[in-house]
């Protein structure tokens, strides 16, 4: 699912007020069980929006100096 900055703001506002039910911009309503669950979801949302959720790939190179 693609999260938006508005989704992040809505979840942050709920965390700040102690609410466990969040209504997002697209009218989805989610009820979370714990504050820890909300913080975990928030971290994932932020990682996805900022692109930190992407993995880096490294490819080893080889150069022969046998000319």
Query: Count of DSSP helices?
Result: 2
Summed over residues and divided by their number, the pLDDT gives a mean of 86
* pLDDT < 50 stretches: none
> How many distinct beta strands?
2
Radius of gyration: 19 Å
Strand-residue proportion: 5-15%
The first-to-last residue Cα distance is 52 Å
> What does the main sheet amount to?
2 strands, antiparallel
Class by SSE composition: mainly alpha
Please write the string of helix (H) and strand (E) elements. Answer: HEEH
Strand adjacency order, main sheet:
1-2
Tell me roughly what share of residues is in helical segments. 40-55%
Concise synopsis of the structure shown:
With 67 residues, the chain is mostly helical. It is built from 2 helices and 2 strands.
Question: What do you see in this structure?
Answer:
The chain is mostly helical and 67 residues long. It has a domain at 5-50. The protein contains 2 helices and 2 strands. It has helices at residues 5-17, 35-50; strands spanning 21-23, 29-31. A hairpin with a 5-residue loop joins β1 and β2 (29-31). α1 (5-17) packs antiparallel against α2. The mean pLDDT is 86.
Overview features:
mainly alpha; 2 helices; elongated
Describe the protein's topology.
Blueprint: H1 5-17, E1 21-23, E2 29-31, H2 35-50
Antiparallel strand pairs: 1-2
Helix pairs in contact: 1-2
